[in-house]
Amino acid sequence: MIFTATQIAGILNGDIEGDETVEVSKLAKIEEGTEGTLTFLSNPKYTQYIYSTNASITIVDRTFKKESEIQTTLIRVDDAYKAFSQLLEYYNMVKMNKKGIEQPCFISESAKYGEEIYLGAFSYIGENVTIGENAKIFPNVYVGDNVTIGDNVIVFAGAKIYSESIIGNNCVIHSGAIVGADGFGFTPNEKGEYSKVPQTGNVIIEDNVDVGAGTTIDRATLGSTIIRRGVKLDNQIQIAHNVEIGEHTAIAAQTGIAGSTKIGKHCLIGGQVGIAGHLTIGNKVRIQAQSGIGRNIKDDEAIQGSPALGYSDYNKSYVHFKNLPKIVDRLYEIEKKINIKE
């Protein structure tokens, strides 16, 4: 997409200083700007680059004062950083403004969908599916039988939503995510062989949830695996059967949560965290990256380590961990002196 300085200034309520007709089609860092790109300056540490950048348009604060001539066209706004973010949102809105049903795709006769829907080519919509208003289902998406998808939901290419899943309004499900696969339920017999336990529940994803690329959310054995409203899930997260994640909790990539664990509201969980099954994690808990959680955690705790310790205890202990070779050497010296005296 191509935008002129006049169009951008109109979107941002900004003032142009330079060529009003100059066009841009890409975004760039100010130090890497080239002809046809748009950039911004908000951090004073990067001010030097505005005099050398080849970007066609640069968004700056109204208070910015030039110390020498510049080549880039300026758009002056109240807050350059916020204005650039606003422009990114607008760009995404325009880019995502897809409508209509592409062919080939399959839509069951019993499926229902709202107005302004976009359904990409090679998608499959199963029996008794309900899709809300302004939903966007990108190519190669599978939606199983009896699935409900709310308004303004975006499901990116290649995602799979198994039968009986329920997805609320304003959710985003990224490519490669799988919602509603069977939970990991097997029972051993006397021969040491495993028999599958039928997974008859479903997945419920409430409003305003983001599910990252490659993330998997398993259906419950009985009942529901529940992702509460406002939860943000990074890429490549594994959420097992019957897990419940509380409102507005954010979880970073490669975290694994075992079955039937309950996580509270407003928690922050770092990358590569492992959480054992049947645990209760309180509200506003903060778990540092690569921690291993094998016990219940109370509200407001900060946790780090594997097995996890209290955050402050871990930091104190770490001072000794890294000094262990020196401490051991000192102990040997003390032992030698004691032996000499004896």
What class, by secondary structure content? alpha/beta
Strand order of the largest sheet: 8-11-14-17-20-25-28-31-34-37-39-40
First-to-last CA distance? 86 Å
The total beta strand count reads 40
Whole-number total of structural domains: 2
Highest-level CATH class of the largest domain: Mainly Beta
CATH architecture type of the largest domain: 3 Solenoid
CATH H-level superfamily of the largest domain:
Hexapeptide repeat proteins
* Molecular shape: flat
Spans with pLDDT under 50 lasting ≥5 residues?
none
Oligomer: single chain
Calculate the mean pLDDT score and round it: 94
What proportion of the residues is helical, as a percent range?
10-25%
State which percent range the strand residues make up.
Answer: 25-35%
Q: How is the main sheet built?
A: 12 strands, mixed
- Provide the gyration radius in Å: 27 Å
GO molecular function, one term: UDP-3-O-[(3R)-3-hydroxyacyl]-glucosamine N-acyltransferase activity
Domain UDP-3-O-[3-hydroxymyristoyl] glucosamine N-acyltransferase non-repeat region: 22-89
InterPro entries: Hexapep, LpxD, Trimer_LpxA-like_sf, UDP_GlcNAc_AcTrfase_non-rep
Subunit structure: Homotrimer.
